[in-house]
Predict the structure of 3-oxoacyl-[acyl-carrier protein] reductase.
Amino acid sequence: MDLGIAGKTALVCGASKGLGLGCADALVREGVNVVIVARGAEVLAAAAERLSQVAAGVTGTPFVKHVAADITTPEGRAAAFAAHADYDIVVTNAGGPPPGDFRDWDREAWIKAVDANMLTPIELIKATVDGMAARGYGRIVNITSSSVKSPIDILGLSNGARSGLTGFVAGVARTSIAAKGVTINNLLPGAFDTDRLKGTMAGTAKKSGQDVEAVRAARQKGIPAGRFGSPEEFGAVCAFLCSLQAGYITGQNVLTDGGAYPGTY
């Protein structure tokens, strides 16, 4: 399927690896120009080189730019918009806050979580949505978490901050921008085979005294698909939400978890 987005330009956050990189890769394969942003300069540069190699084999040879910056800061956002001013597609993404016991989280921990996982996406939406509406096309995809639908007790910081973003998007996606070709959706990953998941399982193994492979097997057993997802298939879902064909989908929370969420709605 031709997604009809060749020649568009996307800002993809947290794209040096994992799900963000998976999204950037899928967009490049559709002929989309990408500006990828992440804090780690060396890893980001390697990701940009990989994407440039992919772009070389795509009709039109979309450009790949990378900006080593902290997108949660005003300076980081300014750097992203200095690389390209008018984005047609924005994929917001930030590493989740650390797990823990809510009794141990002070105000600073909460502010940091809300700033990264709620306020930063809102700032990026605010900076781009009117320009998208004026041009008659725009796609914003926020990478959140399956914990928005099925909260995880030790991820309270993430549960709270991402749920705040979810509520905001539910309202703003249904304003006048919807009639001007702009959609805003949230993409909720379950367990994907990323460094973050591996780190979480290593921590669980250490705490429980189990072997990491035993922890991995137990986690996979709880997923109807019987496996973890791949960044590539996550990216494919993101690319579809950015497509012309997805123009009638807005304000939605798209769960990609291999069937792990047990609810009907």
